[in-house]
From TrEMBL, chain A:
Protein name per the record: WD40 repeat domain-containing protein
Keywords: Membrane, Transmembrane, Transmembrane helix
InterPro entries reported for this sequence: WD40/YVTN_repeat-like_dom_sf
Species of origin: Streptomyces actinomycinicus
Signal sequence bounds: none
Highest classification ranks of the organism: Bacteria, Bacillati, Actinomycetota, Actinomycetes, Kitasatosporales
Automatic annotation (TrEMBL), chain B:
Region entry Disordered, spans: 163-183
Name recorded for this polypeptide: SigE family RNA polymerase sigma factor
InterPro entries: RNA_pol_sigma-70-like (IPR039425), RNA_pol_sigma-70_dom (IPR014284), RNA_pol_sigma-E_actinobac (IPR014325), RNA_pol_sigma70_r2 (IPR007627), RNA_pol_sigma70_r4_t2 (IPR013249), RNA_pol_sigma_r2 (IPR013325), RNA_pol_sigma_r3/r4-like (IPR013324), WH-like_DNA-bd_sf (IPR036388)
CDD domains for this protein: Sigma70_r4
């Protein structure tokens, strides 16, 4: 083989390994085109318009850098698929660009008298039937944008291979072997890279804790062993080729046993939750595993609010900020400017889970009064509106000391 | 842009964007983010004159190639390209030797100039004749020929491992043994 043939083969090999184009490309292009045209017309009033645009959560006219330019406003690209009578869900739930791609419950499996594992069981959205189907093979699942592929870990954690599951066929297309055991997975925003958090032991370990009641009786409860994580580092993997490298991360923070890493929006750094003086703290690391400062637009985010940055990157979803008594009570979360941390508005919802588009979010919101036990359902909320659209049925709370935890949603972009 | 044109544009993107993105990734030397930017910008340019385009794919491809080269001309800051290593203990999907050579070559390709890489992509990935490459890039056939020659020479410099690979065979060869050239 000569060099020309080798170049030809290498280029074809590299091209064949590419995942498909990201979803929503046509929308982004049409949006960018529209805005470029508008910018020419509106250049004089640009500064004024920009301020107003932030206030109502509309993406600004940007500098045409090729960033996500999806138009905001009408939530019509995916519509709303709601099943307010289903908890846990049976039929596809979604809004705009976001779909409930899976959900899981966790059940304690006792291993010894004092140790057990909160083992997850997943229900995955079957794209052909639009129904959630139990798939008990996996202990961890994350779904890539596009809803075609999921990354999965087998039953025993930490796992020594990562599966790339074809959601249409239910078959693992490819296994990626790893030397360091993996306990958690997360795709990059564009779905081209996969972050695998490595642990020395099962991150879902539970220990039996002795509780002393006031009257001196002793009771036991299964709980998380706080501050004792076996997390060792992460793999940053190229999904197409499975190639990547492992970076160790020194355990110098208080961590929950499961403290999975996730990519920053641009995937040039990763972050994970740590435990400190307030909730939702996050520590960033570069891709070599060294501590680093957060990206400018992610430093005010909270690790415990999964929605994070809006699709355009111009709004940040933050935590619960206000509750209004009533039956049911109303919760409001904060939406902020990601660069300054200043609140732009409040939006309905007690826990912001995912952006449906630049004006709508999917959230947990209570159906009970503030005095009653918290029982939430998935809802669609709109910036600038008090309206709440139920998406799922009401999730029943975990029973105290129960060995089974209620369903948790896993979202993915279409 | 009317609804019909938008629909036709959406259809085109749905059907061809993955193939176009493959080319864009090669043009950017494996930088997927830069490739998505490149493709999106090319599509934005195309959508503005969608009514007047007869062959959308050829048109978008031409924008991709030219845009990539003009980026280089403008000395846009080149993104750092991270070339991933296989995970420890991982099994290479291919036979070790061939996969390793491709990995080395991929790294070397990412270090070429945008113009050099574009010419190689057009010649060896798109399999276009020199005259067609010259037409697309708006240069002479001689320039295409000399750029191809210099790009391959540069690849050999960047990847000394390729020294083991023989020069262009003078006669059909069925095996990988060095080609004997009689003087």
């Amino acid at each position: 083989m000569n060099v020309e043939e080798l170049v030809r083969e290498t280029l074809r090999d590299q091209a064949d390994g590419q995942p498909p184009a990201p979803p929503g490309l046509a929308d982004r292009v049409l949006g960018a085109h529209r805005r470029r045209r508008n910018r020419r017309l509106a250049s004089v009033a640009a500064a004024t318009a920009a301020v107003v645009a932030i206030a109502v959560g509309v993406p600004l006219l940007d500098s045409a850098t090729g960033t996500d330019a999806r138009p905001s406003g009408a939530l019509d690209s995916g519509g709303v698929r709601a099943h307010p009578d289903q908890s846990p869900p049976r039929d596809r739930i979604g809004a705009g660009d976001t779909v409930l791609a899976a959900y899981y419950t966790a059940e304690l499996q006792q291993r010894t008298d004092e140790r057990g594992v909160a083992a997850r069981t997943y229900w995955l959205l079957d794209p052909r039937t639009g129904k959630y189907k139990k798939d008990a093979r996996w202990s961890f699942v994350t779904v890539a944008p596009g809803l075609k592929t999921a990354a999965v870990l087998e039953r025993n954690l930490p796992a020594h291979r990562i599966g790339l599951l074809d959601l249409a066929t239910g078959e693992v297309e490819r296994w990626i072997p790893v030397r360091h055991g993996v306990g958690g997975l997360a795709f990059s925003y564009d779905g081209t890279r996969l972050l695998a958090t490595t642990y020395g032991e099962n991150p879902d370990l539970r220990v039996k804790e002795r509780l002393h009641d006031e009257d001196g009786r002793t009771t036991w409860m299964w709980g998380v062993r706080f501050g004792d994580s076996s997390r060792s580092g992460f793999y940053d993997l190229d999904v197409a080729s499975g190639a990547g490298s492992w970076s160790p991360v020194a355990p110098d923070r208080d961590l929950n046993p499961r403290a999975d890493f996730a990519y920053s929006r641009n995937a040039r750094s990763v972050y994970a939750q740590y435990i400190g003086g307030r909730d939702g703290l996050q520590q960033f690391y570069d891709l070599e595993g060294h501590k680093t400062v957060p990206p400018a637009d992610e430093k005010f985010l909270r690790s415990d609010v999964p929605a994070r940055l809006s699709p355009s990157g111009r709004l940040a979803a933050l935590g619960l900020t206000k509750e209004v008594a009533g039956n049911p009570g109303k919760s409001y979360s904060s939406v902020r400017d990601p660069r300054t941390g200043k609140e732009i508005t409040k939006v309905r919802g007690g826990h912001l889970l995912a952006w449906a588009d630049d004006k709508h979010l999917i959230a947990w919101e209570r159906v009970t009064s503030l005095e009653e036990e918290y029982r939430p359902r998935l809802v669609l909320v709109t910036i600038g509106s008090d309206e709440v659209v139920p998406l799922s049925g009401v999730r029943e709370p975990d029973k105290p000391g129960a060995l089974r935890e209620s369903w948790q949603p896993v979202f993915a972009r279409r | 842009m009317d609804a019909e044109a938008q629909e036709s544009f959406r259809e085109f993107v749905a059907g061809r964007s993955s193939a176009l993105l493959k080319t864009a990734v090669l043009l950017t030397g494996g930088d997927r983010h830069a490739a998505e930017d490149l493709l999106q910008n090319a599509l934005v340019k195309a959508v503005g004159r969608w009514h007047r385009i007869d062959e959308p794919e050829a048109y978008v491809r031409q924008i991709l190639y030219r845009q990539q080269i003009s980026r280089w001309r403008l000395k846009w800051r080149r993104r750092e390209v991270v070339v991933a290593e296989p995970p420890e203990g991982g099994q290479a999907p291919d036979t070790a030797g061939a996969a390793e050579t491709r990995m080395v070559l991929r790294t070397a390709l990412s270090r070429l100039t945008a113009r050099q890489r574009t010419v190689l992509v057009l010649r060896y990935f798109e399999d276009l004749p020199e005259a067609e490459v010259a037409r697309i890039l708006g240069c002479s056939v001689g320039t295409v020929r000399s750029t191809t020659h210099r790009s391959l020479a540069r690849l050999r410099e960047l990847a000394p491992e390729l020294a083991a690979v023989g020069p262009r065979p003078q006669r059909p060869s069925r095996d990988f043994s060095p080609v004997e050239v009689r003087s």
